[in-house]
Specification:
474 residues, six-stranded mixed beta sheet, 13 helices
C-alpha cells in the first residue's frame, strides 16, 4: 500500500510505515534524501497530515490502508488514541429522509448517523418511500453530522466520474497539450449524464490504464441506477475512503522521537517541542541544525534548555488545564496556578467558579471551593483534592489519564475515562470502567493501554495506598 505523509511527524512515520511494508509516494525532498526514496508520483492509498493542534495526525485512505495503519500504530505506540469516523468519505448511500425544514433535509445514512442535505438538492431527485441517493462530502470530515449532496461523484485514482458535469482537468496539471489531450479523452469516454474530471496522476499514466479505470467507474455509476428500489435505506452502495484522527500523547511522542533519531539527528523531546509551535519549535530547529554540524549533543541540549526554559510555566504561572476526552472533546477546566513544578512533581490549584455536585463524592460543589491537583511527571493519574472555602476536605478524585504534558500556556492530558473517588467518610468507588471498555471495543485505545489502565486502577485502590492517602484528611 502507498502512503503520502506531510507534517512534523513525517520522518518518524515514514520510518514506521516503511518497516511495516508500506511504500512512500510523492515524498518531500527531505524525505527523499533521508531515506533514499526516488521520485514517485503514484497515487496514494493513504494520506497523512498534522492535526491542526499538532497533537497528532489525521489520515484519509482506503479501508485496507486505514485498517493497516490502525494496527501498526496501536502495536507500536501503546498510548496512541485513534478515533475512526464511521462514515465513508465520498461514500454513496441510499439514505432515508427522516425530517425536512425550510433549509435542509435530514437523511439517515446509517442506523446511528444522520446527515444534512441542502433542501434545494432534493428537488427533482427520484425518491421511493423517502429513500434518496446521497454522497458524503469532504466538508466537516470527522464531525458528528456529515454534509451530504445529491451531485454524485464516483472517485478513482486518476479520474472522477461526476454526475451532470461537463468534465475537466485538475489545475495541478500545467502542461497545456496534456490538458487538451485529457480533456478530449474525457469527452470520448464519458457516459451519458456524467462527466470525467481528471486528477493530477492522470498526466503521467498510460492511456490504457486511464481507460480501464473509467470503465470500472462507469460500472459503479450504472449500478446506482434504480438503487433506491433495490436496497433498503439506509445502506452503503459505493464505498469511499475512511478517516481517522490520531492523538499522540507523551509516550507516543517519545517513541516517535526514537524512530526519527535512527534517520536524522534528533534531540529528546523533539515532537513535544515541535507540537509547542512558536519560539519553542524554532529553538528546536536551530538546535538540531547544530547537531547536524557536529556539535556535541550535551552542549546542544543545554543550549536548547536555555532557550526553551523562559517559554515554559514556573511556580506562580497561570495555565489553562486542558482535559481531553477519549472522543476528542476538549474540556477546559479553567485557569490554574502552578504551586510546584520540577523534574519530578507538578502541583496546581484552581478555584471553583460555579455551584453543582461532585459526582461520586455525593457532596455539593460550591463556588469558592478550592481544587488542588498533583501528579508526578510520567505518572498515569492525577489526584485532585477538593476543599471548601473553610478548608474542609470534601473528598478526592484520582483521575486516570495519560502522563501530563506541560506546554507554554497549558497543562494537557488525555482522560482515560476511569476515576477513583475517595469520599470524606473513606469510602472508595471506581467510576466509568465500562466507558473505557467501550472505547477498547471500538479500537480507540490499544489492548496494551486498556491493560495499563486496569493495572493503575488496581494500584491506586490497593488498601495500603488508600490508607496512606486517607490518613492525611480523615
Amino acid at each position: 500500500m502507498r502512503a503520502k505523509i506531510r507534517g512534523i511527524y513525517t520522518t518518524a512515520l515514514t520510518k514506521l510505515l516503511l518497516e511495516n511494508g508500506f511504500q512512500i509516494v510523492q515524498p518531500s525532498q527531505t524525505i527523499k534524501t533521508r531515506f533514499g526514496i526516488p521520485d514517485n508520483i503514484e497515487p496514494s492509498d493513504l494520506k497523512i497530515k498534522d492535526r491542526h493542534d499538532l497533537q497528532g495526525v489525521v489520515a484519509l485512505g482506503t479501508p485496507e490502508a486505514i485498517k493497516a495503519l490502525h494496527a501498526i500504530l496501536h502495536s507500536s505506540l501503546e498510548d496512541a488514541i485513534i478515533r475512526k469516523w464511521s462514515v465513508s468519505v465520498d461514500g454513496i448511500y441510499n439514505g432515508a429522509i427522516i425530517n425536512e425544514n425550510d433549509d435542509a433535509v435530514q437523511v439517515k445514512i446509517r442506523e446511528d448517523v444522520v446527515g444534512v442535505l441542502p433542501k434545494h438538492e432534493v428537488q427533482g431527485e427520484s425518491q421511493n418511500k423517502n429513500a434518496i441517493l446521497v454522497q458524503v462530502l469532504r466538508k466537516r470530515i470527522g464531525k458528528k453530522t456529515p454534509i451530504l449532496t445529491t451531485q454524485l461523484k464516483v472517485v478513482g485514482n486518476y479520474a472522477i466520474l461526476a454526475k451532470k458535469s461537463k468534465g475537466g482537468v485538475s489545475l495541478k496539471i500545467k502542461d497545456i497539450s496534456k490538458r487538451a489531450e485529457l480533456y478530449a479523452l474525457g469527452k470520448q469516454l464519458s457516459p451519458e449524464g456524467w462527466g470525467i474530471i481528471w486528477r493530477e496522476p492522470a498526466a503521467h499514466t498510460p492511456k490504457n490504464v486511464l481507460e480501464n479505470e473509467v470503465a470500472s467507474l462507469c460500472k459503479k455509476a450504472k449500478a446506482l441506477t434504480g438503487a433506491t428500489y433495490l436496497s433498503d435505506a439506509p445502506a452503503l452502495l459505493v464505498e469511499g475512503l475512511y478517516f481517522i484522527d490520531v492523538e499522540f500523547p507523551s509516550l507516543s511522542k517519545a517513541k516517535l522521537d526514537a524512530l526519527r533519531a535512527t534517520v536524522s539527528p534528533t534531540l529528546e523531546g523533539h515532537h513535544f517541542y515541535k507540537s509547542c509551535g512558536g519560539n519553542v519549535s524554532l529553538a528546536l530547529e536551530m538546535a538540531e541544525k547544530l547537531l547536524e554540524k557536529g556539535r556535541s549533543k550535551s552542549e546542544v541540549k543545554e543550549l536548547l534548555k536555555m532557550q526553551v526554559h523562559p517559554e515554559l510555566p514556573e511556580v506562580g504561572s497561570t495555565v489553562d488545564v486542558e482535559h481531553v476526552k477519549l472522543n476528542g472533546r476538549v474540556l477546559r477546566l479553567g485557569q490554574a496556578i502552578i504551586e510546584v513544578i520540577n523534574s519530578k512533581e507538578l502541583r496546581y490549584s484552581r478555584t471553583i467558579r460555579t455551584d453543582g455536585f461532585y459526582d461520586g463524592l455525593d457532596v455539593a460543589k460550591e463556588a469558592g471551593d478550592r481544587a488542588i491537583s498533583e501528579t508526578k511527571l510520567g505518572e498515569w493519574y492525577i489526584i485532585t483534592n477538593y476543599f471548601s472555602k473553610d478548608k474542609l476536605w470534601k473528598g478526592a478524585y484520582i483521575n486516570i489519564n495519560t502522563p501530563v504534558e506541560i506546554y507554554p500556556f497549558e497543562v494537557r492530558y488525555i482522560d482515560l475515562e476511569v476515576d477513583v473517588c475517595i469520599r470524606p467518610d473513606g469510602e472508595t468507588k471506581v467510576l466509568d470502567m465500562e466507558k473505557l471498555e467501550k472505547a477498547s471495543e471500538k479500537g480507540m485505545v490499544s489492548e496494551a493501554l486498556f491493560e495499563k489502565v486496569k493495572d493503575v486502577v488496581a494500584a491506586v485502590t490497593e488498601k495500603g495506598f488508600i490508607e496512606k492517602f486517607s490518613a492525611k484528611f480523615i
